[in-house]
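Late entry, written up from scratch paper. The run itself happened at the end of the previous shift, but nothing got recorded in the book at the time, so transcribing now.
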Amino acid sequence: MNSRLEDIKALFYFMVRLFRSKLIIYVVISRNQLEMHNLKTGQTIKLRSEVPFSTNRLLIANNMVAENLGKQIMNKICGRDLKLSPVFMIIHPLEVGFDDVSPVEKMIYNDFGTILGAREVIIEESLEKLNKESLVRIKDKYS
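Output as recorded:
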C-alpha cells in the first residue's frame, strides 16, 4: 500500500512539474565551498564545508560531503519549489589552478547536479564569476 501511495505522489509531482516554469540555479564550486544563486528569487547562499570535500587535484573529491552540503543549500534556497519545479543548474567550477575542466570532472559535476535534483546541468568553464547581466541572459534563454 505504501509503494502505491509513493507512486501516486511521484506521478502528482511529475504532472505539476510539466506545467511549472524552470527553477534556474547557478552554482559556484570552489575549494570546500559552495555558493548557490536562485535566479528566480535572487536569493544567494554561500557555505564552507567543515569536512573537506576538495583535494589539490579535484574540487569535488569526496562527493558524499559535497552532496550533503549541496542538498542543505538547495533546501534553503529553493524550499518547496524544489519538488514542484523542474530544476536547471549551471555549475561553475571556479578556483585558482583549476583552469581547464577535464571530461572526468565534467562527469563529476553533472552527477553532482543530478543528485541535487537538476533535470538539466550546464558546466560553465569561464575563468570569472558570471555577472548579473550574464545570469539574466541565461535565465531568459532557458526559462
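The first strand starts at residue 23 and ends at 30.
(Scratch paper discarded after transcription.)
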